[in-house]
Amino acid sequence: MVLIDILKALVLGIIEGLTEWLPISSTGHMILADEFIRLNVSPAFKEMFLVVIQLGAIMAVVVLYFHKLNPFSPKKTAGQKRETVDLWLKVLAACIPAGIIGILFNDQIDKIFYNYQTVAVTLILYGVLFILIENRNRNKRPAVRNFSQLTYKTALFIGIFQVLALIPGTSRSGATIVGAMLIGTSRSIAAEFTFFLAIPVMFGASLIKMLKFGFAFTPAEGMILATGMITAFIVSVFAIKFLMGYIKKHDFKAFGYYRIVLGVVVVLYFLLAGK
User: pTM of the prediction?
Assistant: First the structure.
């Protein structure tokens, strides 16, 4: 059974690595995956596992953007170091709204909204929003094309949109990218800022889940968790590179259509399954 569960963790890590960064909702995919890939573990471990494997995905951002995010790099000038510190302060400012709401109401939000109906609605809703926003911005030049043009006010506004991602199916990257593009941020800056926002958010969420579960893993649980995290890291590296290359030549409408289709699939599957 341990080998089978490790293979299942491998598949879940692949799903996490792909869907965490593409604006298509990792939760929506995980809900569907859970119908077919059921880990033979305790409910408490499973709850922790599905959050903590995100650390693997986060490490991909840290590795890929290490120089850009490192304010102590000897290769940077004094001015570049100040710009890096300023970027981190903007990231932290943007994390405040979701951090406050998440700490205060996370359990209630999960209890009320963690169901396939909500996931389907949010998948479709944000899919439509991506299409509408891209159509609106078709002939507009973005006002924010680099991080020096990203003000604290703009960062905080993007952070408010991140609060919406607490509702399952919204997609954290989807919500923040939609918010950033609404206020005139370019696709590349919107995507990268979303990546950076994930670092403190996911580290914090994973730490809370780990403390809640405890660190007394069985050898089998440790192997399952490590497999999921390592797989999510490797797949995330490719997913991030793909997304950044893709949006240089394409818009986000394809992801919007995908979300709409996935939302319909979620509804049909659970209706036909009688759940």
Answer: 0.90
* Angstrom distances, CA of residue 109 to CA of 22, 115, 253: 23, 11, 29
Radius of gyration of the chain (CA): 19
Look at the alpha carbons of 200, 205, 208, 210 in this order and tell me if their dihedral is positive or negative.
negative
Neighbours of 77 (CB within 10 A): 9
Q: What is the pLDDT along the chain (275 residues), one digit of tens a residue?
A: 688 999 999 999 999 999 999 999 887 788 788 888 888 888 888 888 988 898 999 999 999 999 999 999 999 999 999 999 999 999 999 999 988 888 888 778 878 888 888 989 999 999 999 999 999 988 888 999 999 999 999 999 999 999 988 888 888 898 999 999 999 999 999 999 999 999 998 888 888 888 888 878 888 889 999 999 999 999 999 999 999 999 988 899 999 999 999 999 989 988 888 76
* Residues contacting residue 113 through CB under 8 Å, at least 6 positions apart: 167, 168
Question: Distance from first CA to last CA of the chain, Å, rounded?
Answer: 27
